[in-house]
Amino acid sequence: MLYLKSCPRCTGDINADSDTHGTFLKCLQCGFSKDLSPEMAARLFGGASTGRPIERTAYPDQNVA
Ligand SMILES: [Zn+2]
Fold it and tell me: Could you give the CA distance from residue 24 to residue 1 in angstroms, rounded to a whole number?
């Protein structure tokens, strides 16, 4: 995905890409790059499956002897 004129350094064009380490932004003009957190990436890319909080009910006193 390409974000035109979004570079904070040179207002160049930012390309968003991802590899095995996660998602990152890179400027095509000056080489500026920035890693994105998974939730930031989800927000930018429309959110796949990470958009809702995980709620889990715990039973701490349930000890099975
Ligand atoms: Zn730039």
Answer: 11
Residue 57 lies in a domain: no
Going from the Cα of 64 to the center of ligand 1, the distance in angstroms, rounded, reads: 59
Is residue 17 a part of any domain in this protein? yes
Name the phi and psi angles at 55, rounded to 5: -115, 130
Give per-residue pLDDT as tens, 17-50: 888 888 899 999 999 999 988 888 888 777 555 5
Instruction: Provide the CATH number for the domain around residue 23.
Output: 2.20.25
Q: How far is the CA of 26 from the centre of ligand 1 (A)?
A: 8
Against a cut of 0.70, is the pTM above it? Answer: no
Output the CA 33–ligand 1 centroid distance in Å.
Answer: 8
The parent domain of residue 32 ranges over 2-44
